[in-house]
């Protein structure tokens, strides 16, 4: 596998009643794409505050953006964009850890320097860390949401303010491959960006039938991944936890099956002509 591009572009945007504008950016930053994403994040409902939130989503065809969102002193909303190559994001998979690595420069104006991810993976997820997440969080909601996402569903919960702790905990429970392909938002004013897991002040209508509300997530049918994950965490079994977190996604399994079928057909055709 080729080494990923470690460079990270960044920008700071603000949004208010007059619209969205770029305040600071690195050279060659795709400002129109960032403005589009900030607009699709949604308009703030009256009386709703956003002290700190994060989300991740595709940025063009070859990149991913990790965005920090926060209220600014002038009553606008600030967006700090970090834009990285898709292959780097797939290797990391945790937008919250990416955002935490680089503190926003909210006072920046004009030109910004580019950033670079160090040539190292994120720390291994320890069983003690996940034990604390289940102990301090809403266990039923966390585990139900985890299984729903693994099964291809979406988790949408109603909250008056960002659900940072919940989304951060949920992302620690997901398999490596799954969380690299899913898009979280600890808060958003709309779901036009198609988040797979999101907290919102007002829930939109659901036309996909893939979305699960909070009650549905708590009562989501327990399946293999959730069951074995809970057992491994409660037993303190690091080896089993590592195996579960490294599991294939359902799409990976389908692709592998199709590859095997294609190779079988190719071999059958070759033998037919040879013999």
Average pLDDT value? Answer: 90
Provide the gyration radius in Å: 21 Å
Helices, by number, come to 11
How would a textbook summarize the main sheet? 7 strands, mixed
Note the overall shape.
globular
**Low-confidence spans: pLDDT under 50, at least 5 residues?**
250-265
Determine the fraction of residues in helical runs and give it as a percent range.
Answer: 40-55%
Q: Helices and strands, in N-to-C order?
A: EEHEEEHHEEHHEHHEEEHHHH
Based on DSSP secondary structure assignment, what is the total number of beta strands?
11
Content-based structural category: alpha/beta
Strand content: 15-25%
Distance between the termini: 37 Å
Tally the structural domains: 2
Q: Could you explain how this protein is built, in words?
A:
This protein has 275 residues and is α/β, with parallel strands linked by helices. The protein folds into two domains: 7-116; 127-250. Helix content is 40%, strand content 21%. It is built from eleven helices and eleven strands. The protein has helices at 31-40, 86-92, 95-101, 127-136, 139-150, 164-173, 176-179, 214-218, 224-235, 238-245, 250-274, and strands at residues 7-16, 19-25, 53-59, 63-71, 77-85, 110-111, 115-116, 154-158, 184-185, 197-200, 211-212. Strands 1, 2, 3, 4, 5, 6 and 7 form a seven-stranded mixed beta sheet that branches. A hairpin with a 3-residue loop joins strand 3 and strand 4 (63-71). Helix 5 crosses helix 6 and helix 9 (224-235) runs antiparallel to helix 10. It is globular. The protein starts with 6 loop residues before the first strand and ends with a helix. Residues 250-265 have low confidence and may be disordered.
